[in-house]
Amino acid sequence: MPDQRVPVVAIVGRPNVGKSTLMNRVVGRREAIVEERPGVTRDRKEVEAEWNGRDFVLVDTGGWLPGGDHLDAKVSQQSERAVLDADVVLFVVDASIGVTEEDDRAASMVRRSGKRVLLLVNKVDDTNREPLIWDFVRLGLGEPVAVSALHGRGTGDALDALVALLPAPVEAPEPAADGEAARRARDVLSVALVGRPNVGKSTLFNRLIGDERSVVHDMPGTTRDTIDTVIETPGGPLRFVDTAGMRRRSRIDQGTEYFSLVRALQAVDSADVALLLIDATEGVTHQDQRLAERVEGAGCPVIVVLNKWELLDAEARALVQADVERKLAFLGRAVVVKTSALSGKGVHKVLPALSGVVDEYRRRIPTRQVNEVITLAQQAHPAPGGARVLYATQGATDPPTFTLFANRELPRTYLRFLENRIRDAFDLGQTPIKLRVRKRTD
To answer: Which site among 135, 158, 279, 408 is 20 to 30 Å from 369 CA-CA?
Structure first.
C-alpha cells in the first residue's frame, strides 16, 4: 500500500533569523509566538499548511546553537530531530547580519542529513538588500531565495519552490463517508497538561507520548508554546497538549510569557480532559488552587497528578493527600494519581485514569433511568414555586448533556441539586454535566 503520509517541512536555522515569523506568514495566522529577541521558540511546533493544492506539515524549531548551555543543547537536539524527520528543510538565514559561524555549522548539519533543502534569506525587505543573498551561496545549500517573512515579500515564490521539492503525491484513499471523518475527529479527545512552571509537565508529556517532543530543563518557563501529539491508546486515540506553566498575571512581565499564558488558557478551554500537575514536594499552593478553579470553569474533568511523589516520605505524603482533599475539595471526586515523571514511576496509572474519565465523559444513559432519578429527586425535594420537571432525556455526550422539560423556570440552586442527584445515581464522578431547561409551551 502506498504511503499516505503528508510531507513534513522543517524550518531550521540559528536563533532569531525569523523562523517563527515565516511559519506565521505561511499558515496565515499567529500560530507561533514571535518576539524580537532570540530563544523564544524552544520546542518543535507542528501545524498543517497548504500551497497551490499541496498539503504539508510545517515544523517550527528553536534556534540551532551548538556550544551553548545545557538548555541550548536540548533546543538544538530538537532542531536536529526535526531535520531527520523532514522531507524538505527550509534553512533560514538573516540578510541583515550576513553569514555567521553558526550559519556555517548549522548548514553543515543539514548537508550531512542528505535532505532536500531550500535556502531562504530572510529580512530582504527591499531591493537594496537583494544583492546580499549571494553571500550565502558558500553555505553549499543551493541557490538562495530572498524573502521578507515579516512583510510577505517573496514568500509566494519561496512556497512555489518548496512545493517543487516535495515528494510526489500518492493516490489518495477513498474519502470517508459523510460524518465518518467528523466522527473520527470528534473521537480524538484532547488532554491538556496544565500547572505552574517547573512542576514536570513537559517531562510527563514526553513520557506519555514516548518521544522527546518537548524541551525539558530545570529552569522554570522552558515551554513557551502549546505542543500537541496524537497517540494511539487501548481506549482509542488521545491528543496530549503540553502547555506553558501558568503564573498569576501580576507576575507576568514579558510579552512572550503573556502570549504563552494565552495559548495555555486556549488549550484548557478547548480540552476534553485536563491533567493538573502539582509539585508534591511543595503541596497545593494558592496558585494551584486558582489554576484548578480556572480548569473547572472551562467545563472539563480534571485528573490531579501529584508529581515528584518519590521524593516524599510517608509523613509528607499523608500531609499532601490531606492538602489535596482540603484545598481542592471543590473539584469533587477528582481522580488523584501519584507519579514521578522523571523516573517514569507511576506514569502507567495515567492512561487508565484517563480511560475511566473518558468513559464517563462519553456515557449515554437510557431515558427511562434519567426520568426515574428526576422523579425520585422531586419527590424527596420539590422545586420551589410549583416548578416541576415533566420529562428529561440525555441529548448529547462529551460531556453528558441532559434536557429538562419543565412547566416553568427552575432556580439555579435546584438545578445544582438535580445535577448532583444525576451524578450520584450514575456514578459520573467529577465529569462535568450540562443541564438545559426547556419550558413547556401552551
So the answer is: 408
Q: Residue with C-alpha cell 514571535?
A: 34
Extract the runs of DSSP E, i.e. beta strands, from 79-163.
88-94, 116-122, 145-146
Beta carbons within 10 angstroms of residue 434's beta carbon: 13
19-27 and 155-165 are packed helices; what angle lies between their axes, rounded to 10 degrees?
A: 90
Question: Tell me, what's the pLDDT at 258?
Answer: 46
CA distances (Å), origin 361, targets 93, 208, 397, 434: 48, 21, 7, 11
User: How does DSSP assign 260-309, residue by residue?
Assistant: HHHHHHHHHHH-SEEEEEEETTT-S-HHHHHHHHHHHHTT--EEEEEESG
Write out the three cell numbers for 291. Answer: 489554576
Chain segment 121-172, per-residue pLDDT in tens: 999 988 888 999 999 999 999 999 999 988 888 988 899 999 999 987 655 4
Nearest alpha carbon to residue 22 among 90, 85, 70: 90
Distance of CA 347 to the CA centre of its chain: 19
Q: Are 93 and 149 in contact (CB under 8 A)?
A: no
Task: Report yes or no: 267 and 243 within 8 Å, Cβ to Cβ.
Answer: yes
Question: Strands of 302-307's sheet, edge to edge?
Answer: 227-233, 236-242, 189-195, 273-279, 302-307, 335-338
> Phi/psi at 145 (nearest 5 deg)?
-120, 125
Integer-rounded Cα Rg, in Å, for the chain is: 26
